[in-house]
Amino acid sequence: MTAGHCSEGVRASAVKVRAGTATRASGGKQVGFSSIKIHSSYTVKDDIPYNDIAIWKLSSTISEISGLTTETGTRVVSALRTATVSVISRANCHSQYGTLSISDAMWCAGVTAGGEYACSGDSGGPIVNSSGTLLGVVSWGNGCARKGNAGVYTRASSFVDWINTIRLRLPFRDYDG
User: Fold this and answer.
1) Pseudo-torsion of CA 140, 107, 53, 142, nearest 10°?
2) Residue 77 has what pLDDT?
3) What's the pLDDT tens digit per position in 26-68?
4) How far is CA 121 from CA 3, 38, 66, 100, 134, in A?
5) Number of helices and strands (H, E) in the chain?
6) DSSP 8-class letter at 96
7) Residue 155's beta-bridge partner residues?
8) What range(s) does the Peptidase S1 domain occupy (predicted)?
């Protein structure tokens, strides 16, 4: 599962994932993809992605299981990093981004003082709780870990039915035909 905006125009046969390592360029195992499905209601309005979710199907199983670190950075880190963030209230999220910008399929998380949350290049990455349950995927935000600006995440629970229909092979927008 990833963000829809990370999937537009991407051909499944042209990308691979590296798993089993925290290093971007080496180690682990590389596996390709057989299909990419973007939610049929995915859209972008005023630079804000809505229903920002996609499923990438691996071409084979993985038995073992990057981004920038500053807003103006240009160097991609070579090892994966994590951030510990807290859920921001819906009211606070609305006050930061406006009521119309945050749909029911979105939620916010961050650190009130700033300094820690998803950054450029993290789009589509997972946000999980302490038990490892996937809560959503990185969607968008204002800058990178700015004070008073939480990150906006696609709410995975809003798309459970859609995710399950993919397993039933119903038609979806498919960029690899």
Assistant:
1) 0
2) 62
3) 888 888 999 999 999 999 999 999 999 999 998 887 764 446 5
4) 12, 19, 6, 25, 19
5) 2, 11
6) H
7) 136
8) 1-168
What tokens does 165 get? 């229909």
Tokens of 48: 């804000």
Single-letter residue type at 121: G
Site of tokens 């199983």: 61
Catalytic residues: 5, 52, 123
Structural domains for the chain: 4-174 (2.40.10.10)
What is the Cα–Cα distance from 154 to 137, expressed in whole angstroms? 5
| Secondary structure (3-state) at 89 | coil
Of 91, 103, 120, nearest to 42 by C-alpha is 103
